[in-house]
Amino acid sequence: MSFEITGKLIEKYDTTQVTERFRKREFVIEKRGSSSFGEIVDTIKFQLTQDRCEHLDNVAIGEEIKIMFNIRGRKWEKDGKINYFNNLEAWKIEKSAPPVPEAPPHTIEDMPPEPTDDLPF
To answer: Which domains does the chain have, with CATH numbers?
Structure first.
């Protein structure tokens, strides 16, 4: 199942070569919203893997981006202890379009004058 979210890029880290065949790159976005309690600010960490690590190369800190991602969960056992962890695995990143300023409403004064001519119709 795939999800998407839009937020402002606030951190991006270098690509890490985890093993000979696996590399990852992490980044963090800030997602702002509001509720009946006031403004909510979430900071959410994602990871890119393998050839997708380059998706952040042309994105600057502070830019609004849309992230398409999957939620991955893993079970990990060590020394008889079982742990579970989740990853938000991004697979596509798009720069959000810059907000378009709202145009002021037109008034009669803004309209060009009607042309005058001598035609009978």
So the answer is: 2-93 (2.40.50.140)
